[in-house]
Amino acid sequence: MTQPTLIRGEHLPVALSLAVSGVPVLPLRAGKVPFGNCPDCVGNACGGRPNMKTPGPCTCLAPCHGWAAATTEPGTLNSAEWARAWQQAAAVAYHPGGAGVTVVDLDNPDAIAWAREHLPGTRTVPTTRGEHWIYRGVMPSANAVRPGVDIKSAMSYARWLGPGTGTTAALPDAVRALVVREPAPARPTPVTVTASAGGGQCPHRTPTFLERGIAMAEQRIAAATAAVHATVFGAFLAVLSTHGRCGCLTEAHIARLFAAAGAKGESARHCADAWANAVHRLGM
């Protein structure tokens, strides 16, 4: 029986060659994205690999679950279940972490210039818009660690664009440090004061008044199209001036305000600073 054609172009031979060398590979469709889950695995009905973040018990024979489908098994790559994927494939991808390497994806000339100044030289692969710098070692993956720079290693995939040039260097601390986040500052605790002669009851009487105030502050922040820093500070100041002295604000309310600011691009550090400055302005 004639062997079916499993490939468009040279993708399968390339994938098989990489697999033999110990590099886990998978097909990519147009747009540089993995093939979607098969009907049996839609919505992780198979019970494995939730959100493609960790390999699970799923034993589906199709190239499901994104990066977790990457394999070095020639039998799997040549199987009938993968045939349709290879026929439609636009590129070959690999799992850098599974191959024991980390890819520093430099997406533009500015990112390349930064890497040349701050990172040790290593194997380099040209890409459509920039370069992949390949280091020996595995680390967590992360996108946008700085302008134009992504890290692809564990639980990620990268396009195979050729072997590149140069000698693969050991993964330096300078690259590992790119995904280390500074601990967020402690969220300020609700401001309370000693109960007054009024009996210590919240002067707002009902929680609806407080809820309306928080919702209005969230809307004010969400509607900001300019001067976001100032808008966030003003919203925090308004909430604290009305609700900050009676003790009715809770951590949940503050978290909602911080989340609204975060959705507009404000960092946790700026939120904490803005809140502290508002407290100081009000003499609390």
Tell me about this structure.
The chain has nine helices and ten strands. With 284 residues, the chain is an alpha+beta fold. The chain folds into three domains: 11-93, no CATH class; 97-179, no CATH class; 207-281, no CATH class. Strands 4, 5, 6, 7, 8 and 10 form a six-stranded mixed β-sheet that branches. Strands 2-1-3-9 form a four-stranded antiparallel β-sheet. A hairpin with a 4-residue loop joins strand 5 (123-126) and strand 6. The protein is elongated. The termini are far apart. 30% of the residues are buried. Mean pLDDT is 81; it is low at 1-8 and 189-200.
Highlighted features:
9 helices, alpha+beta, 284 residues, elongated, 6-stranded mixed β-sheet, 3 domains
Count of discrete domains = 3
By DSSP (H or I, 4+ residues per run), the number of helices equals 9
Helix content: 25-40%
* Percentage of residues in DSSP E strands: 5-15%
In total, the number of strands is: 10
Which consecutive residue ranges, at least 5 long each, have pLDDT under 50? 1-8, 189-200
**What form results from the Cα inertia axes?**
elongated
Instruction: Write the element-wise H/E pattern from the N-terminal end onward.
Output: HEEHHEEHEEEEEEHHHHH
Biggest sheet descriptor = 6 strands, mixed
Structural class: alpha+beta
Distance between the termini: 83 Å
Mean pLDDT: 81
Q: Rg, please? A: 26 Å
InterPro entries: DNA_primase/pol_bifunc_N (IPR015330)
Organism: Kitasatospora cineracea
Domain DNA primase/polymerase bifunctional N-terminal: 15-193
Protein name: Bifunctional DNA primase/polymerase-like protein
